[in-house]
Automatic annotation (TrEMBL):
One Pfam family per UniProt: DHHA2
Transmembrane segments: none
Annotated ranges, domain DHHA2: 55-242
Name listed for the protein in its UniProt record: DHHA2 domain-containing protein
MF GO annotations: pyrophosphatase activity
Organism whose genome encodes this protein: Rhizoctonia solani
InterPro entries: DHHA2, DHHA2_dom_sf
Length: 259
């Protein structure tokens, strides 16, 4: 029963109460329904799915209680890139998507400095043995994920709600870290960092501006993005292009070909 309830909740949230998704999602919800604790109660399936979508949607956006480590873990997508030849190292590269601004995240760590944020990030990536990590932020200026919004707001952070006077323009940032001492030597980490950094800064689809304050260490960078529409789907191919250029061969296409 509990498993059926959880599966229905996941389907409701992932499909936005069937406003997106496929017929397979609807079919699955019907098949699971009779095993759930909701079946036989006063609410029908459509009402339950609508309620679950709304309740979980609100909970999903309430990130105020999460620390930086949790924010990094919340939506992390990482890959192990096998070494393309005997002289090159394998890599663990991952990207975290975080709907909270860097300045808000920085207030959640240690002495409220970028250096403290990067130390928290370093501790998390050490746990998972990641070599290259990026954190992509997405938020509305002065809205949820950036600063405290007025108490009469419903807290909804719908990207399409551009008319909400309590929210400023959409913003995105990129934080990049390349660590040595895991799979990379200091020299290889330096060269890989420069390769990714150069590719990001040269990408017209991102049009980034680098933070110039002290970040507290080597191979660390933060940029503001001018194009607020450039999400992980845009950033990732740019990073992959940099990694392939650094390796000198198309490792990602080889990976896809092996699948």
């Amino acid at each position: 029963t509990e498993l059926a309830d959880l599966l229905l909740a996941v389907i409701a949230l992932d499909t936005d109460d069937f406003h997106r998704g496929t017929g397979r999602d609807l079919h699955a919800s019907k098949a699971i329904w009779r095993w759930s604790s909701f079946c036989g109660n006063d609410e029908d399936r459509d009402d339950v799915m609508d309620r679950l979508d709304k309740e979980l949607g609100i909970a999903k956006k309430d990130l105020r209680h999460l620390d930086v480590r949790d924010l990094l873990r919340r939506d992390w997508k990482g890959d192990i890139i096998p070494a393309p030849n005997a002289s090159a190292p394998a890599l663990h590269l991952g990207i975290a998507s975080i709907p909270v601004s860097m300045r808000n995240q920085i207030t959640r760590v240690g002495n409220h400095t970028p250096a403290a944020w990067f130390e928290t990030e370093k501790a998390w990536t050490k746990e998972i043995y990641a070599d290259v990590s990026l954190a992509l932020t997405s938020y509305r200026e002065g809205g949820v994920g950036d600063e405290t919004i007025p108490s009469d707001s419903d807290g909804d952070d719908d990207d399409n709600d551009d008319g909400d006077s309590k929210k400023g323009p959409k913003r995105r940032e990129i934080a990049l870290v390349v660590q040595d001492g895991r799979r990379l030597t200091r020299d290889t980490a330096n060269s890989l960092f420069e390769a990714i950094k150069s590719e990001i800064e040269a990408a017209p689809e991102l049009n980034v501006t680098a933070w110039t304050i002290d970040l507290g260490g080597q191979r660390r960078a933060i940029w503001n993005q001018s194009d607020a529409k450039a999400s992980r789907k845009v950033v990732r191919p740019i990073v992959e292009r940099a990694v392939e250029g650094w390796y000198g061969q198309p490792v990602y296409r080889q990976l896809l070909g092996d699948m």
